Amino acid sequence: SLTAGIVGLPNVGKSTLFNAITKAGAEAANYPFATIDPNVGMVEVPDYRLEELTKLVKPKKTVPATFEFTDIAGIVRGASKGEGLGNKFLSHIRQVDAICHVVRCFDDDNITHVEGRVDPLADIDTINLELVLADLESVDKRLARVSKIAKTKDKEAVAELAVLEKIKPVLEEGKSARSIEFTDDELPIVKGLFLLTTKPVLYVANVAEDEIADVENNNYVKQVKEFAATENAEVITVCARAEEEIAELDEDDKKDFLEALGIEESGLDKLIRTAYHLLGLATYFTAGEQEVRAWTFKVGMKAPECAGIIHTDFERGFIRAETVSFIDLKEYGSMSAAKDAGRVRLEGKDYVVQDGDVMLFRFNV
Ligand code: GDP
């Protein structure tokens, strides 16, 4: 499954945030086949629709979708030079599908900053530069090979060469490749390069507890937002320290705590939701008397592939899917009422599943 890696300089609040993730963790009983890796935290994806469906259908059990975060510790200046820990750090980043980059946006004299000052932009730069340098090395290696083949007028090589030559000068300026606008033709080539700085990134601005309700006036956050806009990245604000506490509360206490902080949604919920979308993920539901469940799929997947997420037999023997949107099901109150109103569709193998679809798969065994 897809995972988002948490990175950041030392002492910015990564472990605190990761602790919040593992404390909030998904109910293990629901996911018996989940892997156990201390660096991976699995959380449930918050979704009000799942609660509503549970109220409508009253199943024996409700199972939310899950999302995985990987804790990637150990970034150091000079990582791209391939020294020990640094090398390991880069190979871990290579394996994740998106990057959550935690940046310190809180002042606290008691907590040492590795570089002796709070400066989120310089921090971002320090890490991004290591990734940029690693990419530059990959691009140079690739250029050496591809430029030879391109001389033979090989079409693919010529196209790749053009892409590499578009990327290289940007990296040389110290900028991430994600800041480049690629054409639809170029995108698959870019994907095949497996660069680090094209991975989607989410900057997580870690602010002080007493500033979380008023982040608009936080200058550090403002700077991070301005920077993120230049490279098509997203920003969310959290207070990691508060999240660690929130993660241990039940729903009612959580609401009270959030109210006291002056925010509507916990930073962790925001993080999960944003990372989920960043990866192009969406949710469909199955809603039976036994179980109401949310399933994660990639936007653009067709019905048989989505059925295959539940079981490979569902994909192999796929016939059709009885489909109703969550909104319609909620409006009509039950599957049969939605059917009577003509809101339940019979979708075939070419149907592109939509976020919020409630589906019943028909298949041959
Ligand atoms: P890491 O090295 O990036 O994993 O950072 P840690 O999570 O270990 O945090 C470093 C220190 O900063 C710890 O003492 C945390 O309690 C503290 N810290 C983390 N988040 C916050 C925050 O939002 N506000 C304040 N004041 N301190 C924080």
From TrEMBL:
Domain named OBG-type G is located at 2-258
The TGS domain covers: 280-363
Q: Name one Pfam family in it.
A: YchF-GTPase_C
What is the residue range of the signal peptide feature?
none
Q: Which cofactor does it need?
A: Mg(2+)
The UniProt annotation places ATP binding at 11-16
Known InterPro entries for this protein?
ATPase_YchF/OLA1 (IPR004396), Beta-grasp_dom_sf (IPR012675), G_OBG (IPR031167), GTP-bd (IPR006073), P-loop_NTPase (IPR027417), TGS (IPR004095), TGS-like (IPR012676), TGS-like_dom_sf (IPR023192)
Where are its TM segments located?
Answer: none
**What does this chain do?**
ATPase that binds to both the 70S ribosome and the 50S ribosomal subunit in a nucleotide-independent manner.
Q: Which PANTHER family match?
A: OBG GTPASE FAMILY, OBG-TYPE G DOMAIN-CONTAINING PROTEIN
Q: Which family does it belong to?
A: Belongs to the TRAFAC class OBG-HflX-like GTPase superfamily. OBG GTPase family. YchF/OLA1 subfamily.
Protein's UniProt name: Ribosome-binding ATPase YchF
Q: Which organism is it from?
A: Vagococcus teuberi
Q: Which gene encodes it?
A: ychF
